[in-house]
Amino acid sequence: MAAAEATLLSQSLKTDRAPGSETAETAATVARTSVATAAAAAIVAAARTGSETRVSKAALATKLLSLSGVFAVHKPKGPTSTELLNRLKEKLLAEAGMPSSEWTKRKKQTLKIGHGGTLDSAAGGVLVIGIGRGTKMLTSMLSGSKRYIAIGELGKATDTQDSTGKVTEEKPYDKITQEDIEGILQKFTGTIMQVPPLYSALKKDGQRLSTLMKRGKVVEAKPARPVTVYSISLQKFQPPFFTLDIECGGGFYIRSLVSDIGKELASCASVLELTRTKQGPFTLEEHALPEDKWTIGDIARSLGHCSSLFPDQLALKKSKPEESNRQNLSCEFKTLNETKGEGDVIKTF
């Protein structure tokens, strides 16, 4: 009994003598345990997150490869149509977890994306995009009508017939009235003959005329050819600027139209701004995706929405299961050149 009491007293005295030191030691142990537990949890969470990310990227890659059809994007002024398509492709690849450097190394062709109906770099508006088997539908886009809002500038001609070129001629325009412009527009309605601009995607000896011009080569203008203007109206006239609303067929050059209008008015003119508001069934307001919606999900929804715009004979058949589940990402580049003109070039990647 005395021994037991002595033991208890001893333990009590030890506790009383060093309460701070044992508490500190216990706290340190708990802290070390907490850090280790947190680290282990972080490792597990990271592994789980990494696994989930890989699964998510694989699912997105599968969804990207299953996209097939035709949709439209809103092209801003500045980039060429091809540059914009590359930007779109890179955004989709990044979302699917496939860097462009890996994409270009692949040889097996499993995904195609292209555009039909080139817009000048200085122009903006609707650009039709085909993805998957939808690239085969782009040719049909070229035969449909297109609509533009063009702002022309009287009294100034440039070598490119728009604001990006060098001024080649200046003439008076102060006597030109709104009635004068409205009075000559009928001459540019219906089937008319038009000379394509020298700065265009039309080719000579396999090279674009615009490329040859930039190299300082002597280039002869292509002969006039028939084109169609369905409607044209003057929306605004504030000299020297005039705004036109034009609906036309394939192969038509707005730059040539504005230049010809200037000549018809005994002056000269060039395009200051150009916006395509419609191509085929696609309109700028309803169908053209802005860049912040260039995602796999938004494009999938747009494809579903736009599928009703085409006649039954152009509808795409459903993909076979084995086709939609393929996850090899690669690309193909080919160019299909129509004979109609710069606005009728199909580029497929």
Automatic annotation (TrEMBL):
Enzyme class, first EC level, given as a word: isomerase
The protein, known as: Pseudouridylate synthase TRUB1
Pfam family, one: TruB_N
Reactions that this protein is recorded to catalyse: a uridine in tRNA = a pseudouridine in tRNA; uridine(55) in tRNA = pseudouridine(55) in tRNA; a uridine in mRNA = a pseudouridine in mRNA
Residue span, Pseudouridine synthase II N-terminal domain: 105-254
Cellular localisation: Cytoplasm, Cytosol; Nucleus
GO molecular function: RNA binding; tRNA pseudouridine(55) synthase activity
EC number annotated for this UniProt entry: 5.4.99.25
Protein family: Belongs to the pseudouridine synthase TruB family.
Primary residence: cytoplasm
A biological process from GO: mRNA processing
GO cellular component: cytosol; nucleus
Job description of the protein: Pseudouridine synthase that catalyzes pseudouridylation of mRNAs and tRNAs. Mediates pseudouridylation of mRNAs with the consensus sequence 5'-GUUCNANNC-3', harboring a stem-loop structure. Constitutes the major pseudouridine synthase acting on mRNAs. Also catalyzes pseudouridylation of some tRNAs, including synthesis of pseudouridine(55) from uracil-55, in the psi GC loop of a subset of tRNAs. Promotes the processing of pri-let-7 microRNAs (pri-miRNAs) independently of its RNA pseudouridylate synthase activity.
Region (Disordered): 1-23
UniProt keyword terms in alphabetical order: Acetylation, Cytoplasm, Isomerase, mRNA processing, Nucleus, tRNA processing
